[in-house]
Specification:
The complex is a heterodimer. Helices cover 0% and strands 55% of the residues of chain A. Chain A contains no helices and eleven strands. In chain A, strands 2, 4, 5, 6, 9, 10 and 11 form a seven-stranded mixed β-sheet that branches. Chain A has a four-stranded antiparallel β-sheet with strand order 1-3-8-7, with no helix packed on it. Chain B is mainly beta. Chain B is built from no helices and eleven strands. Classes of the chains: A mainly beta, B mainly beta.
Amino acid sequence: ETGVTQTPRHLVMGMTNKKSLKCEQHLGHNAMYWYKQSAKKPLELMFVYSLEERVENNSVPSRFSPECPNSSHLFLHLHTLQPEDSALYLCASSPSDSGGSTDTQYFGPGTRLTVL
Amino acid sequence: QKEVEQDPGPLSVPEGAIVSLNCTYSNSAFQYFMWYRQYSRKGPELLMYTYSSGNKEDGRFTAQVDKSSKYISLFIRDSQPSDSATYLCAFNTGGFKTIFGAGTRLFVKA
């Protein structure tokens, strides 16, 4: 595997379910990100981890819970979601541990989530 | 006023045409200007990156920044069907936070 991988690629869940999204980066990067991409809306930054510590948390509802056990893996735990949470969830990684303009983000293919 | 404005399109052009994609922004603190390309069922990938006003060219692609007007553009010369994708403008002030436009969907017809 190369780059940034995400599993599953598609997920359908009910509002009472609990599920997790997984992201793995094979690039040796220090920072990892979760974004939400809804149709015709800008990417919304949800969480950022740098060296396994959360450094950004953009007012995301508590029904989304991130976990970063090591610098290569990132999870997004989901519970009691709402239909409006249906979107493409993108994971990204970047080399720097401090971010910045030249710190290119590399994205995974995303998980298409549908909440019924 | 939205921090970033980008026309969602879709924009449909014939093969070989010159394509112009644009974004306006309101935050004067933006110093770094980027364009990402996103193919269907893929994540975005960085296409071009510029700092400060001016032009930057890379093959068929030219990125242009006008900080006085808070306006950035991406030009694609000799467009190809393989250029069909969604193009996202993006802005960074430093740190981890990048602000993205909603994306313009481009179709290049053979």
